Amino acid sequence: MVTILVLITSVVGLEMLRVSAHQEVAQSQSPRGPVNKKGSAKHQPATNPQVPMKKAVNKATAKGFAEQLRPFLANTNAKVAVAVYSKRDHQLYEATNTKQTTFPSASIIKTDFLVELLHQRHQKASALTTGEQNATVQMIENSDNDAATSIYNDIGSARGLGQLFNNLKMTNSTALASGWALTPTTPRDQIKVLNKIFYENGYISNKSKAYTKNLMANVADDQDWGISAGSEYAWLKNGWKQMPNGHWIVNSVGYLGKGENSCTIAIMSEDNPSLESGEALLEKLSQQVGVQLKIAGAERKA
């Protein structure tokens, strides 16, 4: 038997439901259809205003959320965790099939680099250089590792990344002196970054938010997988990396829907037997989230 943990967070605390199962925009946030296709491109695996939280957990929604995700969490040997912030419910929903507390980031951490870079420039009232603009485009749209390392160095490497984690109270994320590709983090912590882009004001400017959304709306065609299966309206950044044992880290983070019927979502997994199986798992989970939480555009992807 496998125990699946489904967590629902509100201001009054954390409620844990245990379910047993058998093993196994530079464009604004306006509707724009699926992630814009750019064709195949080089890519590499690798105290602000807060969103208000309701005072009561929606038990019916929580139960339905658990039931919809249970089959996919139970019927995989991969370790996987999901976090979703619902704009309509003003609640964070979490689900996992493992007691593991953190996951290696792979390239989803590049979104964190961008947010911290824009924050630092906002603090200094300075613009991105031409080189930084070019690097951020390559880093997000094509997942280029050299461009990412350039931006990582610009923010102050591990010190700068750690500053982001501290500022956003990402208490389960750790910046490593050894490099960024396997940064330990959690879906919940990544939701904090995503909410600064899509829902909250203050950490980066509105212009910077629009810049980031535009990049996430224009990922290369061969990187349009993962959470984008949850809605025809999707902004995303994926991460993937094969480990020495042959298994794969496969992660996907972003935003689905529009208006009140929207969410930020982060899905992280490891020990996938192949990249393709990891992508398929994340897409099934994202589709279920979209339908269950009535995310705009989900019905056309189901």
UniProtKB/TrEMBL annotation:
Identify this protein by name: Penicillin-binding protein, transpeptidase domain protein
Q: Which GO terms describe its molecular function?
A: beta-lactamase activity
Q: GO terms for biological process?
A: beta-lactam antibiotic catabolic process; response to antibiotic
Q: Where is this region: Disordered?
A: 24-54
Q: Which InterPro entries match?
A: Beta-lactam/transpept-like, Beta-lactam_class-A
Q: Which PANTHER family match?
A: BETA-LACTAMASE (PTHR35333), BETA-LACTAMASE-TYPE TRANSPEPTIDASE FOLD CONTAINING PROTEIN (PTHR35333:SF3)
